Amino acid sequence: MTAAVVAAVWSSATHSFSKFAHGELQLVEGQGVAGDAHCGVTVKHRSRVARDPTQPNLRQVHLIQGELFDELAAQGFGVQPGQLGENITTRGIDLLALPRDTELRIGAAVVLRVTGLRNPCPQIENFETGLLKAVVDKDVNGEVVRKAGVMSVVLAGGVVKPGDAIDVRLPPAPHVRLERV
């Protein structure tokens, strides 16, 4: 089994679809990625702000498993890490299989709590034709499978950089399946 690691880190100070590569990110407890447009205690995603700007920000840090980009490349898509707007690209961890409230301990200090699934938006289709269908699938039972990563909140801040180990700590049972947030 491959050890779970941070493959790359990304952020953007604007509400751009894709994010930009960095050597490291500073995560702020209870807020998210310092300098990122989605950093804050309350929601920052435009559609959510329009509905209720006082909602808690359950989408402070967006993670996507790097294996998704391998899967998409095998289907002929040219999308690369960072282009789907994630803050952290991981390797060696099935993020989508984690239960809600899983803690991800990254590097020396950072602790994230997984809050739910990213709900892929139509902007993904605008990025590359057919991509939305590739990241929203159905399982054998006909249930929707959202593959565009997971969202989390920062329980303990610090620096995250490529190569940092990720230690997965599951919450007490019974586990709650991830839903979109």
Automatic annotation (TrEMBL):
Family matches, as InterPro entries: MoCF_Sase_C, MOSC_domain, Pyrv_Knase-like_insert_dom_sf
Domain MOSC: 15-169
Domain of life: Bacteria
SUPFAM superfamilies associated with the record: PK beta-barrel domain-like (SSF50800)
Pfam families according to UniProt: MOSC
The protein's name in its UniProt record: MOSC domain-containing protein YiiM
Natural source organism: Pelomonas aquatica
Lineage: Bacteria, Pseudomonadati, Pseudomonadota, Betaproteobacteria, Burkholderiales
